[in-house]
Amino acid sequence: MQVIKILVVGCGNMGASHAKAYHDLDGFEIVGLVARGDSKRKLNTELGADYTLFESYEEALEQTKPDAVCIATYPDTHKDYAIKAFESGAHVFIEKPLAEDVTSAKEVVSAAIKYNKKLVVGYILRYHPSWMKFIELSKTMGKPLVMRMNLNQQSHGYMWNVHRNLMSSLSPIVDCGVHYIDVMCQMVGVKSVRVSAIGARLTDDIPDWNYNYGQLQLHFEDGSVGWYEAGWGPMVSQNAFFVKDVFGPKGSVSIVADKASNEGNSDSVAAHTQTESLRVHYADLDANNEFVKKDEWVNLADEPDHQELCNREQRFFQQAILEDIDLTSSMEDAVNSLRIALACDEAVKTKQTILL
Prior knowledge:
Elements: E1 4-9, H1 13-24, E2 28-34, H2 39-47, E3 53-54, H3 57-64, E4 68-71, H4 78-87, E5 91-94, H5 102-114, E6 119-121, H6 129-138, E7 146-150, H7 158-166, H8 172-175, H9 177-188, E8 192-200, E9 213-220, E10 225-231, E11 244-248, E12 251-256, H10 269-272, E13 277-282, E14 296-298, H11 306-322, H12 328-350, E15 354-355
Parallel strand pairs: 1-2, 1-4, 2-3, 4-5, 5-6, 7-10
Antiparallel strand pairs: 7-11, 8-9, 8-15, 9-10, 11-12, 12-13, 13-14
């Protein structure tokens, strides 16, 4: 098997998970870890490894000459790091969101095409069998669809540090929202036409321009609608933090995550991808307006944890490189979901409905 030499940039939550995947999977060789501060040393210890450590991305790129780069830094570095990787001849796996703004995201995609390199964006739910089934079943419920999703996190301790750092560059509905906007777009399969949103700044621990609670609403050209809600911080309520639900004229599909929604799990990265069960409800009525069918429960045997999902992302990245898979559609989807999320962010700040 061809071995892909990979440079990991950013050694926090997601960078560490991806590094573990490269460390454990056949066909990858980590040639360096890049991060400011001590996270790269901690990661080396956790992996029981002695990978070369770098403070400077540019120095690491020059010295290691990798086949691929994993970028798991904050979005304000994504465009610069990705384009430099492509220019050096490396493929790129990049955490979402793809970039800080739509123009930068398009520049990254253009660079991937120009240098004929693979670009995979970390939309982790695309690799989850239950989420794939959730999307598949939603398409059987007729149109228009009503999609309801949230992920409120009562973050504290280490996770509050993570969230505060993230909010120095972007809001929760952009950072997390791109995942669920991507899901909604897959469910509906048509263009979104306008967005609206609300937000609230509930702490002085974040920049004046940002907010740590937001809720967005999407309107699609077929009449489908969807909302997504995200709040970060020690003040956030844990009540009903995990809503993943869609309904249409023919019935509804819901993710029922009993363990994932347990008390104290709202800021657990591992809990965010747990699905456990899908409940399928049919709207058919008999002459007495009673339901014709009982609700069905779909329990998929394949229920990967967070690390296994990262492993699957990296197996796909590996496959895309080795088999020269056409990633045009997924790159366009990543730009589109970012465009919608940023329009929602604009709607919060301007208090206006934004036409797309």
